[in-house]
Amino acid sequence: MEADFSEMRKELQSRDARWRRIQLECQQLHAELLKIREYKDMQEIQIQHQSSCVQFTEQLENKNTELLLLAQSQEHQQEELHKIRNHLYQEEQSHCSEQERMKTKISALTEELHQKEITIATIMEKAGLLERQLKMELEIKAKLLEKQQLLDSRYRVIKSENTRLKEMV
């Protein structure tokens, strides 16, 4: 896209330079036309050679034709320049709106990522808490199991003593 902009800018600069050359030529032709008109006026006043007047008139007509062609070319160049500028402006606007859309999307994704990070941190915190609770419960159950085993062994001892006492009686 940047290459297209660069190419369009170069084309625009080229056309601007051409347009300036045409304007300069137009100014020169206008100056020349003024000189020619002065020369023609002098010729008419002096009425010297009719053939040089005809030649001069032909030159003047040729110059006028050239000037008209240059003016038409200049108008065409200005139209082209205007079209290129409009196209460039539209492309820049499109590029800017695309950048804004991408910035908005990135911002939304960043916010979503932030929310997920918060959720993960909360889950990790809860998991740690549950792990500690489970360890505590396991420790309590292990102690209870030890007590139960101790009581079972005492019970067996008492039961066997009780059985022995019953036999003795």
Automatic annotation (TrEMBL):
Keyword tags: Coiled coil, Cytoplasm
Domain of life of the native organism: Eukaryota
Cellular compartments per GO CC: centriole; cytoplasm; deuterosome
Annotated localization: Cytoplasm
Gene Ontology biological process terms in this record: centriole replication; de novo centriole assembly involved in multi-ciliated epithelial cell differentiation
Protein name: DEUP1 protein
